[in-house]
């Protein structure tokens, strides 16, 4: 994590920026202690395409976070995204050994659920339990201690391309960092922006970044569906650059400062200054012209996201609506247009449940980074709880088995 124990570091490797968030537990609350951010030019649609550029961005972001937090960073939790991410639901069934469910029975059920055929070029990123079923009783969150003879678990499995994951790990390693865990980007974003009440009654988290749009649907307190679409804010920037005949760098600035996703929200007399290419003089254009370029592209992105959710069959469980986060969530009018497309309540997702530098991270662009550190502290608590006991229980079983095998061979020979 970090050389100063007690700190957790999250590294958000995005298409447009590399973000590092450092946090520490203070009085039982996760306090943000430092943030580092640097433009990213080595990724495309969430996938590393230039190792050297990505490594340089990682180093710059880490240096900034170290300076702010006053610590030396050595390890981190890293977010992973990209169109190579694939997910599906599975289930596993086992017999309960002693008529009472124990941690070992849960582990065997999860092992059975993830015993599916996965291509050699892909690897498991997450196996997330959705619910447990003991005999005929469903909807169980933690079955430990319950009586029964049959245990079933429903899980959500996330896989990613081996090469894409290896390239991210390599960039972090060359940047002087070890990776404690790889976490799917939208799961981290949801950890920071979605409330437990929303996950219970049903919500969709949509993280629209520079190169991808990441989707996660929750219902009954568990993840039900995840997906990644290779569309994002860079497509809007490209449209602006072509439509207004301006450099990409200036198009990005214009989008952030004057962009609006609904042209009818723009005043009739509002104007903007647009830099030209080739050394020509800047021009003054109507802001509505900019909105007329942005609106069709945003509408297309939101429509494709909506179609993806409908295809998954999860639209009916999204009772609390949609949470928009990521850099594009700051675009004026996006929430209003999203409500008309989805036909559901929509809100911007800001990081919640943290202290410290709250004002600094109070922006949807930091949702994934903050979510990663929250996930890190959550993993630490789980390791200190039943999961360590489960591992110890497994080791004890292994020791007993070895002893029995030795005795068996002793009797034979």
Describe this structure in words.
This protein is an alpha/beta fold and 413 residues long. It folds into two domains: 1-85 and 160-194 and 351-413, 2-Layer Sandwich (Nucleotidyltransferase, domain 5); 195-348, Nucleotidyltransferase, domain 5, CATH 3.30.420.40. The protein contains twelve helices and 19 strands. It has helices at 51-69, 103-113, 162-174, 185-193, 196-201, 233-244, 248-258, 287-312, 334-342, 358-361, 367-384, 386-412, and strands at 7-13, 17-26, 29-39, 43-44, 47-48, 75-80, 86-95, 122-134, 137-140, 150-161, 178-184, 203-208, 213-219, 222-229, 271-274, 283-286, 322-325, 346-348, 355-356. The strands form five sheets. It has a six-stranded mixed beta sheet with strand order 11-6-1-2-3-19, with helices on both faces. It has a five-stranded mixed beta sheet with strand order 14-13-12-17-18, sandwiched between helices. It starts with 6 loop residues before the first strand and ends with a helix. The model is unreliable at 385-405 (pLDDT under 50).
Topology (SSEs and partners):
Layout: E1 7-13, E2 17-26, E3 29-39, E4 43-44, E5 47-48, H1 51-69, E6 75-80, E7 86-95, H2 103-113, E8 122-134, E9 137-140, E10 150-161, H3 162-174, E11 178-184, H4 185-193, H5 196-201, E12 203-208, E13 213-219, E14 222-229, H6 233-244, H7 248-258, E15 271-274, E16 283-286, H8 287-312, E17 322-325, H9 334-342, E18 346-348, E19 355-356, H10 358-361, H11 367-384, H12 386-412
Parallel strand pairs: 1-6, 3-19, 6-11, 12-17, 17-18
Antiparallel strand pairs: 1-2, 2-3, 4-5, 7-10, 8-9, 8-10, 12-13, 13-14, 15-16
Helix pairs in contact: 1-3, 4-11, 6-7, 6-8, 8-9
């Amino acid at each position: 994590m970090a050389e100063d124990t007690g700190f957790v570091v999250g590294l958000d490797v995005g298409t447009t920026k590399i973000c590092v968030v450092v946090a520490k537990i203070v009085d039982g609350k996760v306090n943000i202690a430092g943030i580092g951010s640097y433009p990213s030019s080595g990724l495309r649609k969430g996938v590393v395409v230039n190792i050297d550029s990505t490594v340089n961005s990682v180093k710059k972001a880490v240096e900034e976070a170290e300076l702010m937090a006053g610590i030396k960073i050595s390890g981190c939790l890293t977010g992973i995204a990209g169109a190579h991410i694939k997910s599906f639901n599975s289930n596993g069934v086992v017999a309960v050994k002693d008529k009472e469910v124990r941690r070992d029975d849960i582990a065997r059920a999860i092992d059975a659920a993830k015993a599916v055929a996965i291509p050699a070029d892909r690897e498991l990123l997450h196996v997330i339990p959705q619910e447990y079923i003991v005999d005929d009783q469903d909807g169980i969150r933690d079955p430990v201690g319950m009586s029964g003879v049959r245990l079933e678990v429903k899980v959500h499995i996330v896989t990613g391309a081996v090469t894409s994951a290896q390239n991210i790990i390599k960039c972090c390693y060359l940047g002087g960092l070890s990776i404690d865990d790889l976490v799917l980007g939208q799961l981290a974003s949801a950890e920071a922006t979605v409330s437990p009440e929303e996950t219970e009654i049903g919500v969709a988290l949509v993280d629209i970044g520079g190169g991808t749009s990441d989707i996660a649907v929750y219902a009954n307190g568990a993840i039900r569906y995840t997906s990644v679409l290779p569309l994002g804010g860079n497509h809007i920037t490209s449209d602006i650059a072509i439509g207004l005949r301006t450099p990409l760098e200036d198009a990005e600035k214009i989008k952030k400062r004057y962009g609006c996703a609904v042209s009818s929200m723009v005043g009739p007399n509002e104007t903007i200054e647009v830099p030209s290419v080739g050394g020509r003089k800047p021009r003054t254009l109507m802001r509505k012209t900019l909105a007329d370029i942005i609106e069709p592209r945003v509408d297309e992105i939101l429509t494709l996201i909506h179609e993806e959710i409908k295809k998954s069959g999860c639209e009916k469980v999204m009772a609390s609506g949609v949470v928009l986060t990521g850099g594009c969530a700051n675009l004026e009018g996006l929430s209003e247009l999203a409500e008309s497309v989805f036909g559901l309540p929509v809100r911007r997702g800001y990081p919640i449940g943290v202290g410290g530098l709250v004002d600094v991270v109070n922006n949807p662009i930091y949702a994934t980074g903050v979510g990663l550190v929250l996930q890190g502290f959550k993993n630490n608590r789980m390791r200190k709880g039943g999961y360590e006991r489960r591992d110890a229980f497994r080791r004890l079983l292994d020791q007993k088995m070895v002893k029995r095998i030795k005795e068996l061979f002793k009797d034979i020979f």
